[in-house]
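Predict the assembly for these three chains.
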Amino acid sequence: MLLLHIKNLSVVIEEKKIISQLNLEIQSSEVHAIMGQNGSGKSSLAYAVMGHPRYAIFSGDIHFLGQNITNMAPDKRARQGVFLAFQHPFEIPGATVFSVLKEAYVAVTGKLVTISSFSNMLYEKMDLLQIDRSFAGRNLNEGFSGGEKKRVEILQMLILKPKLALLDEIDSGLDVDSIKVVANGIRTLKAENPGMSLLIITHHQHILRHIQPDVVHVMHDGKIVKKGDSMLAQKIEQYGYSGLLHG
Amino acid sequence: MDIAGFCMDKKKCDLLEYIYKTQKGLSSHVVCQISEKKNEPGWMTDFRLKALTLFESLPMPKWGCDISSLDPSDIHFYLKPTEQQGNSWDTIPPKIKKTFEKLGILEAEHRFLAGLATQYESEVIYKSLMEKWKNKGVIFLDTGEGLRQYPELFKRYFASVIPPSDNKFAALNSAVWSGGSFIIVPKGVHIDMPLQAYFRIDASSFGQFERTLIIAQEGSSIEYVEGCSAPVYKKNSLHSAVVEVIALSGSKVRYTTIQNWSDNIYNLVTKRAFAYKDAQVEWIDGNFGSKVTMKYPSIVLKESGAKAQIISISVAKAGQHQDAGGKIIHEAPHTSSNFISKSISQDGGRSSFRGLVKVADGAKDVKASMNCDALLLDSISRSDTYPTIIVKEKSADVGHEASVSKLDDEQLFYIQSRGLSHQKAKALVVNGFIDAFVSKLPMEYAVEINRLIASDIEGF
Amino acid sequence: MKDIARVKKENNPGKRPGVVVSALQDFILRYPDYADFFKKKYAQTTTILFVPKGMRIEEDVAFHLLEQKKDRIYSRKIIIIAEEYSHLKTCVTLIVETVASHWPIESIDFFIRTGAQLDFLYDDQVPLFSNRVGERFLISFYLESRACVNCYVSILDDIAIQNNFEFFLLGSHAKANIEGFYLMADCQQLQLRVALHHEARYTESRLAINGIVAGNADVFFKGAVFVSKEAQCCRVAQKNKTLLVGDTATVSSSPALEILNNDVCCQHGSAVGNLDENHLFYLQARGMSEAQAKKILIEGFFDFLLKTLDNHGLKEDLLRRLKVKMRQIL
């Protein structure tokens, strides 16, 4: 089933075109990776798919599960089943991890849930991701280290169980052990929900060693310039981007 | 251009015989004399007289520095050392040439400067424009000459940014202005070297009222540098300049001032720029000298896409009060501004920062920030910070931060542990403190400023 | 003039302690040591509320009125003295109820003596100041060494009154901590001035006032900090953050510093803006609607206050009024 269909998408921010005539199709269950150098437009693509207000769609559209979401508000997209794990998650003072996640869960799944059953669910996931339970009572991302922030992003994904998860540089700033824990969390979710698709944005191989992609795209200057399978990722590791693009 | 530690006392300075001198003190008679001598058109004479009336009626400012000992009736207003302006080195009177040589002007001229307009005692007597710029249509004249040669253009823009009613000292300047630079950069022309003005106050009890008008036409760019020095005299001297800058759409103007007047000068200056669509204006303002300085360069962002930047530094030493800062007014949407001020107070000096950022109703999507840091080098000096932000538009994002502190002991210890003396370590840290300003200066100025700071701190 | 008796906590466990003296002249009769204490000139009829040495009044207290006849109170000024090492927790509403003046109160002066501590809540919903637009009042705090003031300011209902607060840190190690918020909506005008004078060494002050301005409200905030030559090693932090959500509202913020001493650590900041769109996006990307996301972020704005106001009896009431007002303006 075609989950995400991006057609001839051009995106502009602050009068600069950062994505140009991009086409991308993701079927359900698939794992795609988008690689590219800094400034190639990878994170911008994720932001545009999630619906960040500053990223203006210049032309083209985005379809999710057959529905045109190009002009849809970000919360509606979340409720459709799109999830974005941010590269730099924002601190939300005055709102605890518990309270935000519970509200999000109710909003996205539409299911009402008691505090105690939600607590059980939350703690179970926290234990899986080796996040100390005390974090539930802390303000979301406030004072969290880089690694802690990334794990909490994955925690949110585990709670919301999206159909499509966009992971923006989930491995940046993480040590080897943390990457293992995060990858384990992602794999567990995928095992429970085989239909879930992933779009992993990264500029190096680390996470891809733990979660093998079915399709690898390389972005450069706002366009997808190369497409291949997981071998492509290994080639990039060997020859670098310049080697690949000009070699 | 040697501006570091340059100090002349009365004995060393050449005393000049002046060709023309008005009476001391101010009256409509004096104003008319000035206008007549310059052969000005009637409208300018009227303008001056109206401004004089305003000056007499406007009150002295009650805020800011203490200028109570200033007596406008005790000042010469107009001195003209030679009858005509020279266009090459040879036409300049020998005595004046000698002074210039002492001050290193000739050297500077050969050091990749685009042009040099030198004001000496209220009159521009020497300027040279490199052929390149002249051929591109760049106009760089003494303001009086500008009025003579381009009367319509002059009338259109003159006093459009700073009317005489703006404040008492703008009114004074409007009445008795003389000299200054008149610059027009034509459409699309980019001047890749800084244009420079140089002037100094020489005689005692002398007021200097130059008036500068810079018009950067669409898509052009210009960098203008003024650095000045003055000898030391006993009587108080007044420097009350007015600078108007008009940056038309797409143009870029950077106006750099390094002021190191001697410590008897009252430096009360009004400077303002209008920035039109997508234009960029920068005031780079360094205040090192004078007894009292009150100067708040301003930028009004009149049309969408305009950008403003003010980088201001003040160093106040014994007996000095630097009251500086600026104003940025967002009148149009999608404009942004950045305001950085650094001040240093030592040996009992007082340095005050007065800043205003205003966002008018309808100026949507504005981003503005104002940062002001002050360093107090000892316990007898003083630092004040008076920022104001006024926002009438909810989509604006305006922030201000300030800090006041002394030199960090840990930092000094670390540098000393690498072998530098305490004094050298201090100089290093202070120069680092003002780096935001120094990095915007043309190279030879940057070097001079660093030397100036170091000599102040190391006590040489 | 009747004699004034002091109530001892030990003798009256059921009653709340504290002493009210009807007028300055009576107070000095009873406590002649205080004859020279008041450097400022006060009318002899100024009302004094007095907390004796070492007494701890840890809940919001209604000063116990003794031998007090309401018709004797006709002063517009109130003085409150917290003697050495006492601890007073009170709020402006209770003070005014206690004094029960016929006239609107003009000023309240707190004298916090050595080692004493004051927790004070200023809530502008008081019958203190009538509906007279433009009226000014002044609350001053004079702190001796090691004295400490925690002052909480809540402004919800103000209509064009000048609110002035002045803190004088006169003794070493004195501390002033001011936290507050304002929520202004249509037709409201707020003028808030807070001045802090550091006159002694090792003094500390912290000011954090945030607010939301909606509709066509007008807010003018002026913070002034003076650090004298003698006030070495002091720490100053000032912050004012305003969320501007009204289409025709105006916010003006001027936090000023005058520092005459180099051995200080002073910082201040002020910001005016709207909710950070990145934060909004982040919460919406988690499925929350725009309105829900806004609500969470705005409540976070007042998070600090809700946490620090922990033991104040009026906290619940304040929270309720805050929620009502927030619903109104959002």
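Chain A has a mean pLDDT of 89. The first strand of chain A starts at residue 2 and ends at 13.
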